[in-house]
Amino acid sequence: MEPSSGLRERKKQRTRRALIAAAARLFTEKGYLQTTVAEIAAAAEVSSSTLFNYFAGKDDILFADDRYRLDTALRFIAERDPDEPPSTFMDRLAEQLIAAFTPTDGGTDEVTGIPNSLRLQLITTVPELQARALRLVQEAQRQLAEALHAAYPDQVDRLTAAAMVGAMMGAAQSARQVSLERNELPDQVIAATRHGIEVAMGGVRAAALRP
Amino acid sequence: MEPSSGLRERKKQRTRRALIAAAARLFTEKGYLQTTVAEIAAAAEVSSSTLFNYFAGKDDILFADDRYRLDTALRFIAERDPDEPPSTFMDRLAEQLIAAFTPTDGGTDEVTGIPNSLRLQLITTVPELQARALRLVQEAQRQLAEALHAAYPDQVDRLTAAAMVGAMMGAAQSARQVSLERNELPDQVIAATRHGIEVAMGGVRAAALRP
DNA sequence: TCCAAAATTACAAGGATTCCAAATTTGAGG
DNA sequence: CCTCAAATTTGGAATCCTTGTAATTTTGGA
């Protein structure tokens, strides 16, 4: 029982990547709605049944690596300096979130190899995918808030933690959206996101100081 | 051509209400996923085709009145006292949003007659409906931000308006969610929402004062 | 009463998703 | 190398949502 080495495991990873790659290619060529699950499976040389073994649905293929991103942020919170006060920590977390929101540029996802531009275009274009993305963000917020409370159990109660995370993420998203709708350049999108978080930070800092 | 009186129009409204009522009843009795579109149509004594004439999809039936709620908030912004400064206006808007978030209690929706408890339970339970609700919230935020900017074109730019609305709504939602997950009473849910908005207001007020 | 517009309907088709049982492949032990 | 149990894959049926179309019915006004 080799958990991460055996042939079986390697083959599974290869199939998984093949499915993601096939989906990305077809979505780019024909669009999301015009691509059928059967076509993706065929392009990856597996049956449709197998596709559903790997992903819960057509939309899940695009969000295959989301747990990875979230884990990065959760680790950032968990591994904080135990002596750092909440107020300055929130400032650093803000920077971290800005970085996480960055994938506006022309790169490709580290884990899945999906071009960020494709993902972004699909999320803003296809209602079904926008909805999926929003659900993931909400779940991420939940966990971030929980981690924040766990990091400062005596100084930040669950409710305040949720409010702080919600304010930061909500402001960041809204501001970012405005910039994206203006078709601004990546640098400007990041600046807009930063501005949004900065607006929220006014209240977040105050909440972090008042235990 | 009587726009809102004729028999034709009245009959349409009746059919619409019948569909919503049938859906609400069946969702309550058998659950959302277990209820088919055909069953809803049959219970309302129309064909499935007609159901799709009235609603874009099964999930839309539950959100039939959302435009109404949003319009209320938009009117609140549009009809502000032209001389009121942004900072105090935002305080009043905050109260307004808390009220809008209130439907936690045991009442039923004014427009559709759907019990708030049913809607809330379904939204938190069925992923598809949660996603739909989140998309509606995002769209509402967009319009609120636009209205806010329109109300104070010289003092609140679009980006800051979006950030303010995003922070308030994000914080309110997150905090409310925590309270709901604890199965708290309506009063406590409202208090939690208020707390969330209060956290966000710290930054929002500052942004409203800095033109 | 008669007509044109508006609604409703039946029906077919396409596609996502679930389920299940059969067939295949893999890993490990002998 | 051989064999077997477990893990994977697969084909295919079945259900349901959703869209599109063309026929039919209903409605309001002339």
Features:
71% helix; homodimer; DNA-binding
Taken from the alpha-carbon principal axes, the silhouette of chain A is: globular
What is the CA–CA distance across the termini of chain A? 49 Å
N-to-C SSE string of chain A, H for helix and E for strand: HHHHHHHHH
Strand content of chain A: under 5%
| Low-confidence parts of chain A | none
Largest interface: A-B, 43 and 43 residues
Radius of gyration of chain A: 19 Å
Assembly status = homodimer
Biggest sheet descriptor of chain A? none
Structural class of chain A: mainly alpha
| Number of H- or I-type helical stretches of chain A | 9
How confident overall, as mean pLDDT of chain A? 91
Helix content of chain A: over 70%
Number of E strands of chain A? 0
Structural summary, described in words:
The structure is a homodimer of 211-residue chains. Chain A is mainly α and 211 residues long. Helix content of chain A is 71%, strand content 0%. Chain A has 9 helices and no strands. The termini of chain A are far apart. The mean pLDDT of chain A is 91. The interface between A and B is large, with 43 and 43 residues. Chain B binds a DNA duplex (30 and 30 nucleotides) through residues 1-2, 6-8, 11-12, 15, 36-38, 46-50, 52-53, 56-58.
